[in-house]
Amino acid sequence: MVGDEETKICCKYDWISDNIAQKIKLRKEEKRILKGIIDKKFPGHASEYWSNNNKINRDLNSRTIGEWIENEICFLSGFALWFREKEDEDEIDISNLISNAINQDVKAGAQIAFDRKRIELLSDLPSNALLLLKEMSPAGKIAYRSLDMAIIKGLSEGDKEYAMAMKKRTQKNIVPWWKFW
């Protein structure tokens, strides 16, 4: 007990890498790397990004600790994969993104302010494993896509015609997916 009203919960989480590996069929070496990340790097990551007053806080009623960790890994894999695909010597190549959005060939690069330290958690994983992790949950897919959308929004601010052209070419459905049923 911590005080009269709080309970401190500790748990083992070394099984999470096995659980993830079974869900997405990681290769033996990828599984070994993921296990090392979760065993050695994740405690520091959780302490830094999940802490309030030096206490790691998670709502265990909404998700189990395993789900929290899996979600964080998937979410960060989306960001890490996006940067790995588009970054070259600290410059982000956004040529394809803009070319596809406006249906014209464009050469463009950018520098993006982003908390790179947070995605360093997964820096040892090969791109194949990042892709599988990104696809494992909606969190990874949303993280990956959100960077594209942030760039499109940033480029189109102030120019409604340009914004509309980019929006039409990047959104596949006119009706939001949640209105299909």
Structural class: mainly alpha
DSSP helical segment count:
8
Major sheet, described briefly? 3 strands, antiparallel
Task: Estimate what percentage of residues fall within beta strands.
Answer: 5-15%
**Distance between the ends:** 47 Å
Q: How many independent structural domains?
A: 1
Explain how this protein is built:
It is built from eight helices and five strands, in the order ααββαββαβαααα. The chain is mainly alpha-helical and 181 residues long. The protein has a three-stranded antiparallel β-sheet. The chain has a two-stranded antiparallel sheet with strand order 1-2. The longest helix has 22 residues, at 28-49. The protein is elongated and about 60 Å long.
Helix-strand blueprint:
Elements: H1 16-24, H2 28-49, E1 51-52, E2 55-56, H3 65-86, E3 87-88, E4 91-93, H4 95-102, E5 109-110, H5 116-119, H6 127-136, H7 138-156, H8 160-170
Antiparallel strand pairs: 1-2, 3-4, 4-5
Helix pairs in contact: 1-2, 3-6, 3-7, 4-8, 6-7, 7-8
